[in-house]
Automatic annotation (TrEMBL):
SUPFAM superfamilies the UniProt entry points to: Periplasmic binding protein-like II, Winged helix' DNA-binding domain
Protein name per Swiss-Prot or TrEMBL: LysR family transcriptional regulator
Organism listed in the record: Sphingomonas colocasiae
Pfam families per the UniProt record, alphabetical: HTH_1, LysR_substrate
Family: Belongs to the LysR transcriptional regulatory family.
Keyword Ribosomal protein set for record: no
Residue stretches making up the HTH lysR-type domain: 12-59
Keywords: DNA-binding, Transcription, Transcription regulation
The keyword DNA-binding belongs to this UniProt entry's keyword annotation: yes
Top-level taxon: Bacteria
Length: 276
């Protein structure tokens, strides 16, 4: 009475909020979604959704179907990771996620690796949030963190130190961070230290470094990010902001050749660049 496509249909309607958006997500006509839903409800002899303020809210039985859909997707994701682990060729695509501040170092570190493996394509995704590695949103994460997720394994690249930097003759005020970075330790430290003396707010450490280089004020930055810029440390290092750079991946990819060789070749070069 219940087929795989039925479970996926219910999960999509619940996730998107209704048949109209579900049709867009599935790439089909909304009439088809209504027809499939009504046929399923007729077969089951019960309703699966309640309408409230234009949204379709799943009934308790529909919630069970959605849980089944999530369980099936998790199984498929695990199989995909394991299949990748059996791929013995350095071909295809390797997706690496990192931050904008780490990208310059990472680009230098992976250049020889790319040259040595011309059939392997590297996709780099920039973002501050940790990618969902369990769903293969990325194969490898290169990120500053003091507490890497317990679900991932990898290698500690090295220590990250922070200090206050400014351009010679630059403004005396502070360069702070907007609300999108309010939870970042450097932003918390700076808010407590500078308070109302913040002259400028930016939404990335890279932007703070560029603003400091332009003489717009003092910025709290990781030491590696300040290299090559016309700024100098005026205070620090700040022990409370010390962190680490990690190269992380899912355990199921441990034996994947392209992941294994990437870690072996890139991690040592990245460590040298971080140490300066």
């Amino acid at each position: 009475m219940i087929e795989h496509d039925d479970i996926g249909l219910v999960a999509t309607i619940a996730r998107t909020g209704g048949p109209v958006r579900a049709a867009a997500a599935l790439g089909t006509h909304v009439a088809t979604i209504y027809r499939r839903l009504h046929r399923l409800e007729d077969r089951l002899g019960l309703g699966l959704f309640e309408k409230l303020d234009g949204r379709y809210l799943p009934t308790p039985f529909a919630e069970e179907l959605i849980a089944a859909a999530d369980a099936m997707q998790s199984t498929l994701d695990e199989l995909a990771r394991k299949a990748a682990g059996h791929d013995g060729r350095l071909t295809g695509t390797l997706c690496v996620t990192t931050t904008d501040t780490v990208l310059p170092m990472l680009s230098q570190a992976i250049a020889p690796f790319i040259a040595n493996h011309p059939e392997l394509r590297i996709d780099i995704a920039i973002g501050n949030a940790m990618a969902d590695m369990t769903r293969r949103a990325a194969d490898i994460a290169v990120r500053p963190t003091s507490t890497p997720p317990e679900t991932l394994i990898g290698r500690r690249i090295g220590a990250i130190t922070f200090a206050v930097f400014a351009a010679p003759g630059g403004a005396e005020g502070w360069i702070g961070f907007d609300d999108s970075l309010s939870a970042v330790p450097a932003a918390v430290w700076l808010e407590e230290r500078a308070g109302q003396a913040l002259r400028l707010r930016v939404n990335s450490l890279w932007a703070a470094a560029q603003a400091a280089a332009a003489g717009l004020g003092r910025a709290v930055l990781p030491t590696y990010l300040a290299r090559g810029l016309p700024i100098a440390p005026v205070e620090g290092p700040i022990d409370a902001l010390g962190s680490d750079l990690w190269l992380l991946y899912h355990p199921d990819l441990k034996r994947t050749p392209r992941v294994r060789y990437f870690v072996r070749d890139v991690a040592p070069r990245l460590a040298k660049l971080l140490a300066g």
